[in-house]
């Protein structure tokens, strides 16, 4: 009987999920060998051999859950296998089993360079995509065009509302501004300065 299983790996270990719902921890048996793993539960058996790389049987372990059995294989040599089983040549097959491997030097990531690369790769947005692009430098041409294309009353309303509000209000309706209908007030938290 074939048992469904999946795996994932990193450089140090391979983790296998064996989907055996309701497995009794007392009846589950796992045997670890350098290039072979054997799982037994009652009449169910799963044999994985030859493994793509060597494992350290003494450092392997497993846990039995309600839905699956998770098996953790400790790799003798760091690196990705790219598969679980297969006849790929094992670089450690001819080495003495008692020798301890020297861990590969892992290079540290240069996070600053990575951030710079990502930010420089981002496309600058245009005014059509995001009206807030450029801040004041992008808004000023808009108001200059609005003012240039306006009639005399609209220009007068814009100047008066802007200057009386200290730059917080801009109205284009001269009828309201000339009669004081537009509320002109200083920015929040500030007071009018009295000129002498």
Automatic annotation (TrEMBL):
Positions of the UniProt region annotated as Disordered: 83-111, 160-196
Ranges of residues in domain SGS: 99-196
Protein known as: SGS domain-containing protein
A Pfam family matched in the record: SGS
Domain CS: 1-85
Comp. bias intervals (Basic and acidic residues): 176-196
Compositional bias segments (type: Polar residues): 162-175
Ranges of biased composition (kind: Low complexity): 91-104
GO MF annotation terms: protein-folding chaperone binding
Signal sequence interval, chain numbering: none
CDD domains assigned: p23_CS_SGT1_like (cd06466)
């Amino acid at each position: 009987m074939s048992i469904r299983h999946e795996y994932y790996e990193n450089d140090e270990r391979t983790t296998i999920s064996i989907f055996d719902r309701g497995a009794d921890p007392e009846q589950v048996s796992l045997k670890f060998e350098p290039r072979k793993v054997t799982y037994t539960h009652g009449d169910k058996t799963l044999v994985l051999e030859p493994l793509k790389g060597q494992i350290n049987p003494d450092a392997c372990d497993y846990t039995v859950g309600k839905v699956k059995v998770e098996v953790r294989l400790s790799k003798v040599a760091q690196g990705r296998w790219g598969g679980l089983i297969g006849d790929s040549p094992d670089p450690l097959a001819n080495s003495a089993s008692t020798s301890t491997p020297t861990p590969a030097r892992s290079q540290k990531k240069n996070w600053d360079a990575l951030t710079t690369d990502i930010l420089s790769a981002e496309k600058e947005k245009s005014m059509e995509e995001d009206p807030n692009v450029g801040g004041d430098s992008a808004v000023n041409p808009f108001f200059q065009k609005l003012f240039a294309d306006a009639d005399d009353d609209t220009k007068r309303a814009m100047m008066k509302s802007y200057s009386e509000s200290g730059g917080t209000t801009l109205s284009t309706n001269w009828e309201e501004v000339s009669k004081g209908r537009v509320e002109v007030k200083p920015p929040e938290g500030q007071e009018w300065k009295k000129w002498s």
